[in-house]
Design a protein that fits this description.
This protein is mainly beta. The chain has 1 helix and 13 strands. The chain has one helix at about 1-20, and strands spanning about 25-35, 40-45, 45-55, 60-70, 75-95, 100-120, 125-140, 150, 155-165, 170-180, 185-190, 190-195, 200-210. A hairpin with a 2-residue loop joins strand 9 and strand 10. It is elongated and about 65 Å long.
């Protein structure tokens, strides 16, 4: 009996120690959407005269929570769940009304679930891992007007690379977030569909508080 207790006590101590090292945190940050300008032409009555262009991708914001799980002295697994909101600007031209153009904004919201593997190098943590993007909703100024509509994929997969610094309970994080899928799925105009032929990329800077 004494031998069993002596055997299990170190295991219990190690389990308690590992659990004590698990950290829960909340975070918030800003993201810069990186999308190149892109133009499209629509055929109407045999003429390619309607033009639609992606002109700008603006700053977005995000907030959420993280869990830091130690895997060793230098390795850490860090899953996160963050709500992300971003905005893009488009221009719509119709030659039937010369000298005029319609500029409108679209805002979309999604939930990001990165699972980061972190390696501690001196004071710096190097982070990398996959990111799941779950689409929630989008709004734009021209929805349901002039036959223009927008559809998104409900899920796509991306990746993230970056670094972070711990200062007491605070973590300062900068990362590059890429995407394997294209930006959304399709725009529809008068029953005709077209794809935006690029994948979104963004730089994300955030601050987290760990408990």
């Amino acid at each position: 009996m004494t031998q069993r207790i002596a055997f299990f006590l170190p295991l219990l101590f190690l389990s308690t120690f590992s659990f004590a090292q698990i950290e829960l945190g909340v975070k918030a940050g800003l993201a810069t959407e990186s999308l190149q300008g892109e133009s499209f032409s629509f055929n109407r009555d045999g003429r390619d005269d309607l033009r639609f262009a992606l002109t700008d991708a603006n700053y977005g914001f995000q907030f959420g929570a993280l869990l830091r799980l130690p895997l060793g002295e230098q390795l850490t697994l860090q899953p996160e769940v963050t709500f992300n909101s971003a905005k893009t600007t488009y221009r719509f031209d119709d030659p039937d009304t010369p000298g005029t153009e319609v500029v409108f904004d679209e805002r979309y919201n999604d939930v990001n679930v990165p699972v980061l593997l972190s390696y501690k190098l001196a004071f710096l943590r190097l982070n990398a891992g996959p990111v799941g993007h779950f689409f929630l909703s989008n709004t734009n100024d021209l929805r349901s007007q002039d036959g223009l509509d927008r559809t998104f994929d409900t899920f796509n997969l991306g990746y993230t690379l970056g670094g972070s610094i711990d200062i007491g309970p605070l973590t300062l994080d900068v990362r590059y977030d890429g995407n394997f899928a294209k930006y959304g799925k399709t725009w529809t105009f008068d029953g005709n569909e077209f794809d935006i032929d690029q994948a979104p990329k963004r730089w994300i800077g955030s601050v987290a508080y760990r408990f």
